[in-house]
Every structure is written in C-alpha cells, then in structure tokens.
Amino acid sequence: MHRGIKPGNIYIKSNGSPILIDFGATRYSIGVKSQSLSIILTPGYAPKEQYSSKSKQAPYTDIYAIGAVMYKMVTNATPIEASERSNAITDDEPDPHVRLSEMDYPNYSDNFKKAIDWAMEFKHKDRPQSVRELQNAFNTK
C-alpha cells in the first residue's frame, strides 16, 4: 500500500506516462508505529480509515485515494475530507460529498463516473476491494 496517493505524488514523465512517487507513508506503515498519523494523510485524498491508528487498511484504502485523484482531475475540486463526511454521517446528516455521477460532465461516460464514485464510497466494505475490481469497473461498457 502506498497510503499517500494524491495529485502532488503523481509525476508526469516527458513521454506523458504517470509515475507514483513519495513512498514515505509506505515506509511509515512498515516502520515506527508510535508517530502521529497526521503526518501521512492528505485531507480530501485519505479515507476515514487513515484517520485512526486502530483502523484496518488494505488496498481499498489506496483505491479511495485513486478515486479522489480522478475526482479532482474531472472536477478540478479537492474532494470533501473524510472527517467532514464522517461527522455529517454520524450526525444523521447527508454525506456532503457530491457524487461525480450526479454532476454534469458530459465528456465522461456514466460508467467512468460511477467507477470513481464506487472508489470513493465512504465505507471501505462498499468500495472495490482490489485494483482489478476497479479496473474492471472502468472497462465495463
């Protein structure tokens, strides 16, 4: 797991292909456990499970971040922080995150927008559980 996927950690090479950089959060996850998690998450790109040292993290954690980066690419807006989403949901208020499929971006297919929405589901159990699942969602016609 990378645990720090965000626009600032994606470098575009001269041939136009992207490369993921900065594996500091990955090193942290296999190293010292006593430091604050606040140093390894970026609001808007980190799902709720990254806000607690007690939460289980798995590929679905990075999948949320991938969805958030793609959301930013389409909308040019940083997604709502997971902590804000959590507070609203806990208070029985609507999730403040606006799903991409509810927005008017006609240059993107409904399946593409729905795949991003799926990646950004609030509960980790409701997201794709593997990169392969997410890839398949993008390839659905």
Provide the descriptors you would attach to this structure in a database record:
141 residues; mainly alpha; two-stranded antiparallel sheet; 5 helices; globular
Topology, please?
Elements lengths: L9 E3 L5 E3 L3 H6 L29 H17 L6 H9 L19 H10 L11 H9 L2
Antiparallel strand pairs: 1-2
Order of helices and strands: EEHHHHH
Write down how many β-strands occur, each being a DSSP E stretch of 2 or more residues: 2
* Helix count, DSSP H or I runs of 4 or more residues: 5
Note the gap between the termini. Answer: 29 Å
Assign the structural class, choosing from mainly alpha, mainly beta, alpha/beta, alpha+beta, or little secondary structure.
mainly alpha
Q: Portion of residues in helices?
A: 25-40%
Largest sheet: 2 strands, antiparallel
Task: Give the low-confidence spans.
Answer: 34-39
Radius of gyration: 15 Å
Task: Tell me the β content.
Answer: under 5%
Average pLDDT: 88
For the largest sheet, list the strands in their spatial order. Answer: 1-2
Backbone shape: globular
Write a short abstract of this structure:
With 141 residues, the protein is mainly α.
Describe the protein's architecture and organization.
By secondary structure, the protein is mainly alpha-helical. Helices cover 36% and strands 4% of the residues. It contains five helices and two strands. It has a two-stranded antiparallel sheet with strand order 1-2. A hairpin with a 5-residue loop joins β1 and β2. α2 crosses α4 and α4 packs antiparallel against α5. The longest helix has 17 residues. The protein is globular, with a radius of gyration of 15 Å.
